[in-house]
């Protein structure tokens, strides 16, 4: 299991500071959707240069032109990009095609997808590398969590899973039991006064050390 | 009816050149989704400064944190931002809330929404300013066009409509007959050797002069 730090601040300097502080404890740097829209592709290049040992995920949440968006993101240094499960199937295929072409990976984000198990099976066959089980922030504020979806999809589909959605020290143990490939944590690290300490505590729950 | 130029090149200089060339004929500058992800919010500020007479739309295609993404975009100078119809209803509400707060406008993009008329009625009640009838590029490549959806939604819902999806000189007359508030043209202008000439011809079909 890997720990992915979801960074949803808006500026490059804040993003750098968060990664620098938590560097020892995280495996995957996620440039969040609001952050990539705010700072642009230049940030992907900088992160690649500054943190070469980390896996770099860009949360493009692509809804159209899957191949076009993924291409420039991989060329800038991303290892994984995301595409929306609610997108047209041809958009998902385009993202996967770009990932294969670059020797990189595609994650299909299940946010707001009605039948997650059915789509997970379908994109698994199409060659997606990960499926993301994801309750959005606007959904968390309305009381949703990703746990039940994670249980259902992990039981029914053999594809590496990433799980995201308000995961914190109170909720992480139930997630860890289901052994997803990637556990995504944002606010429970980035929103604290001491992100380093928070990352250390979260990493310990995931890795037992 | 207004003409919106959808700009899906990837660099600021190419985008500036396209607007400069077509300036006389377009009403709305659209910073496309791949372009905002590539160049970031700085481009919104530059467009605002350089083309103060134009309406500026940023195609955020927001899928989560509706208010958060719209806020920084309006603060940078956007007049209209987009949110995905396939997003959680709370995300759509967040974008609308931000628009009202800034005295600006929210457009709900119907790309890949199963029941467009039902959602258009719903977001109209919630205070959305526009509904976007939109066949994505990956959908156009699979043979789809926005015309039948435009007919159905315009017949059933009283909300200003924007229509997008491969519109060109061959297809625009059927769109114009239905009198949408905004006609979005991308490749039929930006993909030609002479964007100025193409914009002039398209504008003439829309405005009759």
TrEMBL record, chains A, B:
Gene Ontology MF annotations: 3-dehydro-L-gulonate-6-phosphate decarboxylase activity; hexulose-6-phosphate synthase activity; orotidine-5'-phosphate decarboxylase activity
UniProt KW keywords: Carbohydrate metabolism, Lyase
Keyword Cell inner membrane: no
GO biological process: 'de novo' pyrimidine nucleobase biosynthetic process; formaldehyde assimilation via ribulose monophosphate cycle; L-ascorbic acid catabolic process
Reactions listed under catalytic activity: D-ribulose 5-phosphate + formaldehyde = D-arabino-hex-3-ulose 6-phosphate
Entry annotated with the keyword Nucleotide-binding: no
SMART domains for this protein: OMPdecase
UniProt cross-references to InterPro entries, sorted A to Z: 3-hexulose-6-phosphate_synth, Aldolase_TIM, HPS/KGPDC, OMPdeCOase_dom, RibuloseP-bd_barrel
EC number: 4.1.2.43
Pfam family for this entry, one: OMPdecase
Residue intervals of the Orotidine 5'-phosphate decarboxylase domain: 2-202
Pathway linked to the protein: One-carbon metabolism; formaldehyde assimilation via RuMP pathway; D-fructose 6-phosphate from D-ribulose 5-phosphate and formaldehyde: step 1/2
Assigned protein family: Belongs to the HPS/KGPDC family. HPS subfamily.
NCBIfam families xrefs: RuMP_HxlA (TIGR03128)
Protein name (Swiss-Prot/TrEMBL): 3-hexulose-6-phosphate synthase
């Amino acid at each position: 299991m890997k720990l992915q730090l979801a960074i949803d601040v808006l500026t490059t300097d804040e993003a750098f500071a968060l990664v620098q502080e938590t560097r020892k404890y995280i495996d995957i740097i996620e440039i969040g959707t609001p952050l990539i829209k705010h700072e642009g592709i230049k940030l992907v290049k900088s992160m690649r240069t500054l943190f070469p040992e980390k896996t770099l995920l860009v949360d493009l949440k692509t809804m159209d032109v899957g191949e076009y968006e993924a291409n420039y993101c991989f060329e800038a240094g991303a290892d994984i990009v995301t595409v929306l499960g609610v997108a047209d199937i041809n958009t998902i295929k385009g993202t996967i095609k770009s990932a294969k072409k670059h020797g990189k990976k595609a994650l299909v984000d299940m946010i707001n997808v009605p039948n997650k198990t059915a789509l997970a099976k379908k994109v698994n066959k199409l060659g997606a590398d990960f499926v993301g089980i994801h309750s959005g922030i606007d959904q968390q504020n309305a009381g949703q969590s990703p746990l039940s979806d994670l249980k259902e999809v992990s039981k029914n589909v053999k594809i590496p899973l990433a799980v995201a959605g308000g995961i914190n020290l109170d909720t992480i143990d139930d997630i860890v039991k289901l052994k997803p490939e990637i556990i995504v944590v944002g606010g429970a690290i980035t929103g604290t006064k001491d992100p380093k300490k928070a990352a250390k505590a979260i990493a310990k729950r995931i890795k037992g050390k």
